[in-house]
Request: fold
Amino acid sequence: MVDSVLSVFQGSRQESVLFRSRWLLVAMLGIVLLILLRDTLPDWATTPPDSWTGNLPLPFLVFGDGFLPTLSIKASSVAGWFNDIVHFLRNHEIFDLFTFRDVTRGVAGLIVWPLNFSEDLLISGFSDWGIPPIPWVITAALAGILGWYLGGWGLGLLAGSCIVYFAVFGKWKLAMTTLSLVLVTAPIAIFLGLLLGIFAINWRLFEKALWPILNLMQSLPHFGYLIPIVVFVGLGHKAGAIATILFALPPMAKITILGLRSVSEEVLEAGVMAGCTSQQMLWRVRIPAARPTLMVGVNQVIMQCLAMVVISAFIGARGLGIDLLFRLQTLQLGRALESGIAIVLMAVALDRLSQALSEKEPVRKPEGRFWTVHPHMTAAGLAVVVGGVLAYLVPEAAALPREMTVTFAPQWDVLIKAIVSALFEPLSFIRDYMPPYVLIPIRGFFEQLPWTVFLGAVTLAGWLLGGWRLAAPSAAYIGFIVLSGWWTAAMVTTYLVFVAVVICVIFGFPIGVWASRRDGRTRAVAFLCDTLQTFPSFIYLIPVIMLFQVGTISQIMAIVVYASIPVVRYTYVGLRAVPHDIVEAAISSGCTPSQILWKVRMPLAFPEIMLGLNQTIMFGLFMVMIAGFIGGNYDLAREIFKAKAQNDAGLGLLLALCVAFLGLTADRLILAWANRRKAQLGLA
Amino acid sequence: MAEPVILCRGLWKVFGPEPAEFLARHGSNPSSEDFQETGHIGAVQDANLDVQPGEILVIMGLSGSGKSTVVRCLSRLVEPTAGQVLFQGTDLLKATDKELIEIRRHKMGMVFQNFALLPHRTVIDNVAFPLEVQGVDRAKRHDRASEIIELVGLKGREGYYPRELSGGQQQRVGISRSLAVEPDVWFLDEPFSALDPLIRREMQDEFLRLQNLLHKTIIFITHDFDEAIRLADRIAIMYEGRIVQLGTAEELVTKPATDYVRAFTRGIPKAKLLTVASVMGPPEEGQGDGPTVKDDQLIGDVAGLVIGQDKPVAVMDTSGTLVGSLTRGQVVDVLFTDGS
Reply:
C-alpha cells in the first residue's frame, strides 16, 4: 500500500510540475484575455443593466373576485417579486380569518412564556407570588457544582467564576438575560433539529428535500434570518429568540441524521432480535446509541445560539449583545471590552460544559450513604440551603448592589489608548499603502469583472470538476445574483472576502505549518483555535475597531481575525494526518525533514488544506456581513443594513440569498475538487 | 427423525435492483453469468437446510460466502428474495410484523460478532433489555438477568458498563442477553471471531458447557474450520452463496462433495476426526491375542498403540464382537497424508 501511494506520488511530482505550469499559464492567459475582453465587450455583458434586472418576467399570484388566485406574468425586479410574497404572507387572510403573519406571531408568542419564566427565575423574581430571584451566590455555586459534576474541579471553578465575574463586574442583569435566551432557545432548537432528523431518516423523500434546504440555511448570513423575522414576528426580544432558534436548527438536524445513520448495523439487529417495536428501536436503541454524536450537535447548537443571541441585538434582543453594540457605536471601548469579556467567558464556559457533557460516560454508582452515592446532588442541596440563609441574612449575597460592583473600564480605556498610540506608527503603513496600492486596484478588477466571464468561468469549473450536475447549480447560483440586480454590490463583497482570504492564507498557512512540526506547538495552537472559535463572531469587532476605527480596512481585518482559524486548523490537521507509514517510507528513502514536508506531507495534505480554505471563505462571508456596519463600502452588507433600516424584508432576503449563493458556489466547487483529489491520492 | 425446528427450502437472497423480477426473468435459477451481466449479487442461492431440535448446526464459509445472510434470512433480519422458511412448522415469511416481534421476543436469541451491546446500559440492563421491551417489570427482569449473568460467570459485574469489560466478558454479556428470554433457537453469528485465540478457546469451552445445560437448537456461524469441528454436530459449507455440502465433520473429510470442500478440509488433522471404523480393513483370521481397539475411537487416540505393533490390531465394536482390523500402514496414512 505504501509503495503504491509513493509511486502515485512520484508520478504526481513530475505531473505536478506540468500541472502547475499548465494551470499557471491558463490563469495568466485568462486574466490577459479578461482585460482585453472587458473593453471589447458591450456594456450589457459587463454589468447586468437595470433595464433587465428591473423588468424580469416573473409570475405573480393575483387575487381577484374569485376564490382562487390567477397567475399572471408581470415585469418586476426580483426584490419586487420577493416583496410581493412577503406582502401576500403579511396581508392575505387565509379563509378571510387570519394571515400567515398572524400565525407566525402567534407561534412566536409562545416563546414569551419560557423566556419570562427563566428571566424571573434568574433576574427579577416572580413578583406575583412574592418569590425572589435566585441569589447570585446560589447561581454561582450551582454553576460550579454542574461544572464539577460534568468535568471535575477545574471546570467547576471555571463555571463558578464566570458567574462571579458577571455579578462583580456589574453585568449581572445583562449576562443573565443573554444566558436565559440561550437556555430557552438551545433546547427548542435541539428538540426541533432532533425531530427533523428523525423524520428524515424515516422518509427518504423528506430527507432529499430537507438536505438542500439545510445547506442553504447554513450559508445564509445572520441577517438573512433577522430581517424576515422582523416582518413576521416584529422587533424585540422574542424576535431575537425566534431568529436564534431558526439559525441554530440546521446543524442539529444534520448531525441527528448523520448520528442516527452511524449506529452500527449489529446494534440495530440486536434491537430487532430483542423484539423491539419501531418506537422502541428509535427511543431505546438508535437514539441512545447515537448519543455521543448527538451531543456534538448539542454543543454546536449551544454555541450557535450564543453567537446569534448576541447578533440579535440588531433587532432588539436584550442582554450583553445590545450593550456591546451600544458601546461600540458610541466608541466606549473600555466598557465594550468588559462586555466582550463577559460574552467570551460565557462562550468558553458553555462550550466546555457542553463538551464535558458530550464526553461524559455513564459511571458505576458507588455504594454507601446518600452523599457518597450522590455527592453532587448533596452539594447542590447544601449550596441552596447555605446560599439561601446567607442571602436572607446578608442582602449583598442575594443581589450585589451597584456600588459594590467593579469596573476597570477607565483603566481599560487608558490601556487601549496606549496600545493604539503605540501601534499607530507601525500600522500607518497598512493604512497609508493598502488602499491605493492593493485595495483600489483589486476592487476595480472585481467591480469591472464582466458577469458573462464570471458566469462562464464558474460554469466551466463546475463542468470540469463534476460534470453538469455541478455546473448546473453553480451556474444557477451565479445566474441568480446576475438577475437579482445587485451584481456590482455582490462583486464588491467578493472583493472584500477575496482580499481577506488571501491575507488569512498568508498568515494562517505558515502558522499551521509551524504548528504541525512539534506536538507541543500543535497542542498550543489547537487550544488557541478551539478557544477562539467559541467566541461569537461579533466579539472580533472590538479589537478591530480599537486598532483601525471604521472603514474598509476594519471590515477586512475583522474578517481576517475571524476567518483565519480554519486555515490554521486544517493546515496542521492535514499535515499531521498523513499516514505514518508513508512518512516512515519517506524517512527510510532518505528524505530530509524539509523534503518530507514539501514532497510528502504537503501534497497529501493539500486537499484537506483546501477544505480549510473553503471554511475560511464561508466564515469570511458571514463576517463580511456582520462587519458591514463598520465598513461603508457599496457592498451587500451595507445594502442589507439599509434594507433592515427600511424594514424591506424582500430586499433583505434577496441580498442574504446572494451571499448564500456566493458561498454555496465556492463551497461546492472546492469540495468537488478536494474530494476528487483525495480519491486520486487514495485518501478518501 | 424429529420435526426440524427450522426448515428452509430454495432460499434466495439477491441484492441489486428489482431482485424478485431478476429471479423470475431467469427462471428462478440464474447462472453466474446472469448475475455478472446485470451486476446483481446472489448472496444466498438456493439454500436448503433443516435444523434438528437440540443440534448444533455450524454454517461455515469464508467472508462473502453468504453465511451471515443465510442466518439473517432465517430470522428475517434480512428479507429473502424467494424460498420458504418454516420455523417450528409456521411459515416465517408470511408472518406479520407483529407476529415476528412476538417470535423474536420469545423464541429466538442472537449473539453478534462485535457483541452489539448498548453502550449506555449496564451489564444487567443490557441482559434484561429483551425482557424490558416485552414489558416485564423491573424486579422480575433483574432477577432473571442476574440468574443468567451468574450462569455465564459474570457475577459481581452487574453494575459495569460494556466499555469497562474485556472482549471475552462483553461477549458473555451478549450471550446472556440472547438467552434472557429462554429462546428455542439460538443464533450465533461468528461470536468468537473478534476475540484473541486463547480467549476464543476458553469461550468455546464455555459455550459447550452452556449447551450441555440448556440443550438449545443452535445455528452457529464461523469462518474457522477448527472451531466448526470442535462444536458442530453437523456442518454446512458455503461457497459463493451456495451450500455446497451439509454433513458431519467426518463426512466432509472422507466424502467431500466438491473440490472446494476437499481443498478446505485438506489441512485438517484427520487423526482427530476419523474413527477407527472409517479406516479399518476387514477382520483377519486368528486375531485372538494381542491388544484390541474399539471401532468408535479416534485414530489419533489409538495411533501410538497400533504403530507399536508388527501385526494388524483387531477392532471390536461396543458389544465386543470382532468387526475389523487396523494396520500400521492405515494409521500412518491418516497421520501423514494431507488427504489429496
